[in-house]
Amino acid sequence: MSNLEALLLGVVQGLTEFLPISSSGHLIIVPWLQDYTFLQDNETFNKTFDVALHAGTLIAAIAYFRVEVVVLIRGFVEAARQRAIRTQEQRLAVAIAIGTVPAVIAGGLGSSFIDEHLGEPWMIAIQLIFFGFLLGYADRMPERRNLGDAKLRDGWIVGLAQVLALAPGTSRSGITITAARWLGLDRDAAARFSFLLLIPAVAGATAYKALEAAKEGLPPGVGEPMVVGTIAAAVSGYLAISFLLRLVRTTSYRPFVFYRYFAGAAILLIIATGLRPATF
To answer: Structural domain tally of the chain?
Structure first.
């Protein structure tokens, strides 16, 4: 892998992890369009590089929400110690903890199935379009509540929705924002809840995958591309968070819905014309 390819994939990961357009889908589609098969042919490194990119987006989320992270950790510890929820911060912290559980269980139990049966280009195209439609529909719901009004039930429902994002093309941020908007959270609150929910989920997945990668080892000469990819994902991810939160204060999620329609239709057109195969 060249540093330029690592830079490209790092930027793609950082932007698409937080924008509701599917990072896993884009990390499959971009090499597919290029007919770039290094990651596909080197499965061990592919897993390790995926860990590095997710570590970059995790750094971006923690850096941007560093104040909220400290408050929520303190709130969760206090709620656990008191065995009671007494403040908004404690309720939000527990809601995020609850929301993390479904994806952790589903990801652990279904990882082999996901790797073997999901993520084909034609599947990603359909999911981009379908879940884009759901995002657009949910975003027309009234904005009734802010982040301070989040309930434990919200964490459970958004967490269940997050399970769907294990399939490339759905978008973790997209489906969690969709669920949060459907529950009546305003656009800013939906995005913040989604990004805060990302932190424990990605931290756990990254740690687990890192342990697996450490056991399998690294091929020679990949250290520099991994560093480049991680930094690119962190910087572009931080910028993506800032951009999205500014955007939704003044407009809707409609631009991302249109992008998903366009990207999904373009992939299907490329397949239909025979320029690229529908599967790997």
So the answer is: 1
